[in-house]
Amino acid sequence: MTVISRLPGAVEEEWDWQLQGACRAADSRLFFHPSGERGQAHDDRDRAAKAVCARCPVRERCLRHALATRERYGVWGGRTEEERQLMLRRRRRNRSR
């Protein structure tokens, strides 16, 4: 679950970047795997979602949002849940050094 306390406030500037997302023209199911999806189907869907992200003008902002709010599901900013968790672990490890 997203950590609600980490969400930005209701200020429009905090959210308007989403209006420019390439994902707005795509089916949202592309970015969130259905329960039980595994193997090749999972990999193919992630790859297709990342292709949309690759051409997105707000990809970096999207990824920053997903990391800051600890989005637990879906492809955000071209990264899967697992990839974002790894990024956060590395970030914590680097800070503790």
UniProtKB/TrEMBL annotation:
<keyword id="KW-1015">Disulfide bond</keyword>
<dbReference type="GO" id="GO:0045892">
    <property type="term" value="P:negative regulation of DNA-templated transcription"/>
</dbReference>
<dbReference type="GO" id="GO:0003677">
    <property type="term" value="F:DNA binding"/>
</dbReference>
<keyword id="KW-0805">Transcription regulation</keyword>
<keyword id="KW-0004">4Fe-4S</keyword>
<keyword id="KW-0804">Transcription</keyword>
<dbReference type="GO" id="GO:0046872">
    <property type="term" value="F:metal ion binding"/>
</dbReference>
<feature type="domain" description="4Fe-4S Wbl-type">
    <location>
        <begin position="22"/>
        <end position="86"/>
    </location>
</feature>
<feature type="binding site">
    <location>
        <position position="56"/>
    </location>
    <ligand>
        <name>[4Fe-4S] cluster</name>
    </ligand>
</feature>
<dbReference type="InterPro" id="IPR003482">
    <property type="entry name" value="Whib"/>
</dbReference>
<keyword id="KW-0411">Iron-sulfur</keyword>
<dbReference type="GO" id="GO:0005737">
    <property type="term" value="C:cytoplasm"/>
</dbReference>
<keyword id="KW-0479">Metal-binding</keyword>
<dbReference type="Pfam" id="PF02467">
    <property type="entry name" value="Whib"/>
</dbReference>
<dbReference type="GO" id="GO:0045454">
    <property type="term" value="P:cell redox homeostasis"/>
</dbReference>
<dbReference type="GO" id="GO:0035731">
    <property type="term" value="F:dinitrosyl-iron complex binding"/>
</dbReference>
<protein>
    <recommendedName>
        <fullName>Transcriptional regulator WhiB</fullName>
    </recommendedName>
</protein>
<keyword id="KW-0238">DNA-binding</keyword>
<comment type="function">
    <text>Acts as a transcriptional regulator. Probably redox-responsive. The apo- but not holo-form probably binds DNA.</text>
</comment>
<feature type="binding site">
    <location>
        <position position="53"/>
    </location>
    <ligand>
        <name>[4Fe-4S] cluster</name>
    </ligand>
</feature>
<comment type="similarity">
    <text>Belongs to the WhiB family.</text>
</comment>
<dbReference type="GO" id="GO:0051539">
    <property type="term" value="F:4 iron, 4 sulfur cluster binding"/>
</dbReference>
<feature type="binding site">
    <location>
        <position position="23"/>
    </location>
    <ligand>
        <name>[4Fe-4S] cluster</name>
    </ligand>
</feature>
<dbReference type="GO" id="GO:0047134">
    <property type="term" value="F:protein-disulfide reductase [NAD(P)H] activity"/>
</dbReference>
<dbReference type="InterPro" id="IPR034768">
    <property type="entry name" value="4FE4S_WBL"/>
</dbReference>
<keyword id="KW-0963">Cytoplasm</keyword>
<feature type="binding site">
    <location>
        <position position="62"/>
    </location>
    <ligand>
        <name>[4Fe-4S] cluster</name>
    </ligand>
</feature>
<keyword id="KW-0408">Iron</keyword>
